[in-house]
Amino acid sequence: DSIIVQVDRQDASIEAGRKEAGLCPQESVGLSDMQVFRRVKCDERRPHCRRCTSTGRKCDYDSSLSPQSVTRATSVTQSPVSNPRLSPCLDEQEGRALDFFRSVTLPQVAGTNHRDFWGKLILQGAHFDEATYHALLALSSVHENYVTGKDVGARLDAFALKQYNMAIRDHLDVLTVLSRSDEVERPFILPCSIIFICIELMQNHFKSAILLLRNTFTALSMLQARDKEKSLDHIKTGSTDQELLLSRLQFQARALVGPKWGHTYRLRPIIAHAEIPPSFSSVGEAKDCFHSQTYIHGPSGKTKDSPEKPDWPSRYKTALDAYLSSHTSPLSLKDNHRLRLIEIHLLTIPLVPKLNGPNSSSNPVDEMHWDQYTSTFSKILDLVASTIYDLDTHLAPSFSLDFGIIGPLGILTSRCRDPSLRRKAIHLLRIYNRQEGMWHSSLTANVAERLVKIEEAGLVEVEHCTDIPLAARVSEVRLHHDLDQQHVMLCYSRQQSAMESVRIHVQEKIAYW
């Protein structure tokens, strides 16, 4: 009944990073040799170590040690991280990493919608949980390299590698204890796992990230089976942000690897806004309700008994309009940004069911019907442009788990045939320079440019969407990440020729950057 986390081996660059960190393969525990450890390291908590007592071991920790010897994680919130020298338990590099996390990583990764998860739960985890503390330091270091353009997609630097290995080692200690006991505290297992996934994604290690995500769901499923009479909220801290983040990552993983992902894991969060009210009382309530509705009606939240409510976006828009009409004071920049993102997705969600239809020689997909949504595509682009330029997010690389604009722009560029709108969308993707979970603006732009080239090939002049005939249009556009070969395939179907209505399926390699 052990919970085992196992991830494929990393490349040689990580091994080189281990040597720089002064760690030999036998001493380090990276993703290459991730497995359950039987040794439980004393956490030096007074008067008795929690890890030792939970495993029935006698704690040899000397309770007479001075207060300065308590764990570093306990001191994280006791002193301002902006001046790490104020804390005798933090060295300069750790203090700097904590400062960078709070000032840069936290607001960027959280976006405008997950501040409670990253700003409260993760920081609480760093205070009480060794694994989360070291994972936070590793994430901060990797993210600093990411936003400055150093070693993106390459290897971890020595400090990040050391912290990452320590986080993995402590995390596996907790999983080992958890596999043997029903009563052990476990509120930070999921937050720590999400940090690990972020670290892998920022290095473009999609295979490791997807395997970590799958193993996270597997561990949670085992916990659910063992705690059938309890809600999943009992297993973790009571924040739906975690479940929403995981459900979005699962959606992206399924889109990238297709059937290889397997069955859809369903979580059981406590939904605070299951019903849409006549009006909202604040932008925060509107945001929370939107998240809840996207979860309830998404693949992770649906069950065979779930009622179909395809009209929920229009009902939500009615409630949002009622709030805005009664709200007379100006909205903050953050609230305006939140509402723009919500409106972008409200316009996009009704398009999703229309993306994939029957496709056979006897019942071909009519790609011409997308032309009727040209005005919708134009509204989406205006909202996206104002979001990017107002927040000035197009200057440096950025990473976030927040829902954003790459997904909507991906749908737009694959289905909108208006040449002006399509090229404007590609331009926005190019200057956005952003990664949202497993989706990257550069890859989405490359796909869009390839589709334009395919569909406009041989056409003398394209000034309007109607200038692209059905025979030239592609359908069933999707990306497939070959995790073993580490490349991305663009998959689509197209008419064999202008004279033959039979559609053929095409796969071709696409550049990521």
TrEMBL record:
<dbReference type="InterPro" id="IPR036864">
    <property type="entry name" value="Zn2-C6_fun-type_DNA-bd_sf"/>
</dbReference>
<keyword id="KW-0479">Metal-binding</keyword>
<protein>
    <recommendedName>
        <fullName>Zn(2)-C6 fungal-type domain-containing protein</fullName>
    </recommendedName>
</protein>
<keyword id="KW-0539">Nucleus</keyword>
<dbReference type="GO" id="GO:0008270">
    <property type="term" value="F:zinc ion binding"/>
</dbReference>
<dbReference type="Pfam" id="PF00172">
    <property type="entry name" value="Zn_clus"/>
</dbReference>
<dbReference type="GO" id="GO:0000981">
    <property type="term" value="F:DNA-binding transcription factor activity, RNA polymerase II-specific"/>
</dbReference>
<dbReference type="InterPro" id="IPR001138">
    <property type="entry name" value="Zn2Cys6_DnaBD"/>
</dbReference>
<keyword id="KW-0862">Zinc</keyword>
<feature type="domain" description="Zn(2)-C6 fungal-type">
    <location>
        <begin position="38"/>
        <end position="65"/>
    </location>
</feature>
<keyword id="KW-0804">Transcription</keyword>
<keyword id="KW-0238">DNA-binding</keyword>
<keyword id="KW-0805">Transcription regulation</keyword>
<dbReference type="InterPro" id="IPR052360">
    <property type="entry name" value="Transcr_Regulatory_Proteins"/>
</dbReference>
<dbReference type="GO" id="GO:0003677">
    <property type="term" value="F:DNA binding"/>
</dbReference>
